[in-house]
Q: What sequence folds into this?
């Protein structure tokens, strides 16, 4: 226990310097591990995408110690634009002022009462740490989150103020080669707070226990107000979206950005339009979602060895308030689902709070398993959910299905059931690549399965628009669920001709039927239509059609089959069985 307390205290202190606190409307009770035999923790969204301050750093080296090395510019500290050096950058990009690239072009909110309203940027305040663009390489400016007013579109906090943070990550190698990686974005409804503890965000060196380390902070300086933007004496603290609102964000960013996005959106749409040879205009339009937060306390001495390892050997962020502490585990990692499963009862199977969220983040290439995901130019897809815990990875293509795992507690803070939402956008050409389909129309079958494989009833939506296949599952409940999507395209085949008195399938006919069954797994229905010539052939045709459908049922027991017979005008066209899936 002592080893855990020391590690946790150091980690929590470092995290408080490096991370903003949790939302001001929810501050966990926490525990004092020095005097209590308890551990407290949350499962919630941490800042894994756009942050509150731009950053420059060189790749970690052994001499950097535990905290790596951050830089104040591309050419100071150990960052150099020289051969043999790589500088990594996370640039929170500013609003566009002209025709430049790497910037926020526009931001809109829309509701039934307000209509579509364009946001207006507010700039009359001091900002935090920033770095300039490398003009010769046309890299982004590293700025900070931007403040906007959307006239007349008020959120739950009673104001029409919003903060937008868009992060473009890139590296500069040998002072010449620029490579772009992740793109992430978030929109926050905010309220303005005042007080002497607020300052602009900063990147700086501090001395902690005699050791000099680099830290970055959001300018909140130890409070739990949930600031997403600060200046001298002011904080814009995160609040909640009003119901029934949609947001649209238009961003100019590198055309190198590719792969998948994940995030917290509902009913999303994506548009990507080339601006020039190096820049695209990315448009994401979606509703925010309400995301439950887990808070639990558990007695340390009662934990099993495996359970103790969950807390001792896994990295966690941390929070601190009123002399109490808690660990913070990110919702997008597998361990979050483990914690929900093991300690859901300790939380009463009820979420402690809800945050509304509008955000998306890139998925790194090493998390994209399917060959059709790789070597693609541009974005491949977007996967979003409101689940308490979810995969920070592209849906896994396995056994002919796109599979995705989510988890959560059964109840919301008010005792009502937590209802799940899942949206998947995948480029139509990539979906067809996965299944080897033609350009003919496709449909899909969506299943929400429990850990035991039971299919849960959920409302589903499938459509294909402007080169994107859109799939959604709404209305399912928690705990752990696997969402399985199988994309379907109508298939047809003709079996080898039957002999007049033949009742059983030949070896080759069985091979043909089995091949068709494998190609159409997940189809809603397969029709076996046998042809006959003259009234006397009808009975044999029924027997032959049934024999084929029975064979298909062996491989696809969940697929409905339909037996049909059709009269033909030529004897040469009889004794055939035509297969068709739908």
A:
């Amino acid at each position: 226990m002592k080893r855990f307390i020391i590690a946790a205290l150091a980690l929590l202190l470092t995290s408080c310097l490096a991370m903003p606190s949790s939302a001001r409307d929810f501050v966990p009770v926490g525990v004092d591990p020095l005097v209590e035999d308890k551990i407290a923790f949350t499962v919630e969204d941490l800042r894994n995408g756009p942050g509150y301050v731009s950053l420059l750093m060189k790749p970690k080296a052994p001499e950097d110690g535990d905290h790596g090395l951050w830089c104040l510019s591309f050419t100071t500290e150990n960052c150099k634009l020289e051969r043999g050096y790589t500088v990594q950058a996370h640039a929170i990009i500013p609003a566009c002022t002209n025709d430049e690239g790497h910037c926020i072009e526009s931001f809109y909110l829309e509701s039934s009462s307000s209509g579509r309203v364009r946001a207006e940027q507010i700039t009359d305040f001091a900002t935090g740490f920033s770095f300039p663009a490398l003009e010769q390489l046309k890299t982004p400016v590293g700025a900070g989150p931007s403040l906007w007013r959307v006239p007349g579109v008020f959120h739950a906090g009673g104001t029409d103020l919003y903060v937008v943070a868009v992060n473009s990550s890139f590296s500069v190698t040998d002072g010449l080669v620029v490579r772009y990686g992740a793109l992430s974005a978030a929109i926050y409804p905010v309220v303005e707070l005042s007080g002497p503890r607020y300052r602009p965000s900063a990147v700086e060196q501090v001395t902690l226990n005699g050791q000099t380390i680099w830290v970055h902070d959001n300018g909140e300086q130890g409070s739990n107000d949930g600031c997403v933007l600060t200046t001298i004496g002011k904080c814009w603290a995160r609040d909640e979206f009003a119901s029934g609102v949609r947001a649209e964000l238009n961003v100019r960013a590198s055309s190198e950005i590719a792969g998948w996005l994940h995030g917290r959106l509902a009913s999303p749409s994506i548009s990507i339009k080339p601006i020039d040879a190096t820049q695209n205009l990315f448009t994401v339009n979606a509703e925010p979602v309400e995301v439950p937060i887990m808070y639990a306390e558990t007695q340390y001495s009662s934990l099993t060895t495996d359970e103790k390892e969950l807390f001792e050997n896994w990295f966690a962020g941390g929070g601190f308030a009123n002399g109490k502490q808690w660990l913070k585990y990110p919702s997008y990692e597998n361990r979050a689902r483990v914690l929900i499963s093991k300690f859901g009862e300790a939380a009463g199977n009820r979420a402690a709070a809800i945050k509304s969220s509008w955000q998306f983040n890139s998925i790194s290439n090493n998390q994209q398993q399917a060959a059709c995901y790789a070597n693609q130019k541009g974005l491949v897809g977007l996967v979003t959910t409101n689940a308490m815990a979810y995969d920070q990875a592209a849906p896994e293509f396995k056994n002919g299905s796109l599979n995705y795992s989510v988890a959560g507690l059964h109840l919301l803070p008010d005792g009502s059931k937590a209802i799940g939402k899942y949206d998947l956008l995948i480029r139509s050409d990539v979906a067809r690549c996965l299944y080897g389909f033609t350009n003919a129309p496709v449909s899909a079958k969506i299943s929400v399965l429990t850990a035991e494989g039971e299919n849960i009833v959920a409302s589903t939506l499938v459509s294909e628009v402007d080169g994107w296949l859109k799939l959604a599952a709404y209305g399912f409940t928690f705990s752990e669920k696997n969402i399985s999507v199988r994309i379907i395209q109508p298939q047809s085949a003709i079996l080898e001709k039957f002999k007049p008195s033949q009742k059983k399938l030949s070896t080759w006919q069985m091979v043909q039927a089995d091949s068709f069954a494998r190609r159409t797994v997940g189809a809603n229905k397969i029709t076996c239509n046998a042809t006959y010539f003259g009234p006397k052939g009808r009975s044999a045709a029924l027997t032959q059609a049934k024999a084929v459908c029975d064979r298909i049922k062996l491989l696809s027991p969940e697929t409905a089959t339909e037996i049909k017979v059709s009269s033909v005008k030529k004897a040469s066209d009889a004794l055939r069985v035509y297969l068709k899936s739908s």
User: Anything to note?
Assistant: Residues 1-23 have pLDDT under 50 and may be disordered. The radius of gyration is 28 Å. The chain has six helices and 36 strands. Residues 18 and 448 are 38 Å apart (CA to CA).
